[in-house]
Specification:
The protein has one domain. α2 crosses α3. It has a 3-stranded mixed β-sheet. It is mainly α. It contains 8 helices and 3 strands.
């Protein structure tokens, strides 16, 4: 049985054996001292403002094999969000980037691509058009349900600026 630091090190070693997407995530986690831990939540994994990746304790634990592809792709997904920064990560474009990283990590780790949302989001162009992002949001909502709050997010980071400017105008006239 691993302790948390040993388990985290084993996860990073497995990522470093993957392709460029996996290696980039491992390097980012090491360089920025990102913690990986467990928390009970509604999603498979999440990133936090305090630079942590929290894995859902209903699915993952220290007993989870650090080579588990689902686990590794979840870590890559959340590391991508942390690397994006909050303004991009909290947009549909940011979520598409997370799913693309998830998809690429699974492919690099030679896992069968079995989740439909990976295929749907992988078709989004880079850079995406607004129509691509609207379609991705509809597909994510259809596949993951209304509790997957991506459907509430703006499409692009510059929409946050517009929202803040609009709110400022509402309160400081």
């Amino acid at each position: 049985m691993y302790d948390l630091q040993q388990w985290r090190a084993a996860v990073l070693e497995h990522l470093e054996r993957g392709g460029p997407t996996c290696r980039h995530a491992a390097q980012y986690i090491r360089e920025h001292k990102i913690e990986i831990g467990f928390a009970r939540q509604s999603t498979r994994a999440r990133w936090t403002l305090s630079k942590k990746i929290e894995l859902n304790s209903r699915y993952y634990s220290l007993a989870t094999d650090p080579a588990n592809v689902d686990l590794l792709s979840a870590v890559v997904h959340e590391a991508r969000h942390l690397a994006q920064g909050i303004a991009l990560a909290l947009t549909v474009w940011g979520e598409v980037g997370g799913w693309k990283a998830d998809y690429d990590a699974a492919a690099e780790l030679h896992a069968p691509i079995r989740d439909v949302h990976w295929e749907a989001v992988a078709r989004v162009l880079e850079p995406p058009t607004d129509d691509d992002l609207r379609r991705a949001r509809r597909e994510m909502l259809a596949l993951a349900g209304w509790r997957y709050l991506v459907w509430l997010l703006p499409l692009r980071p510059n929409w946050w600026t517009r929202l803040v400017a609009w709110l400022a105008g509402m309160f400081w006239r």
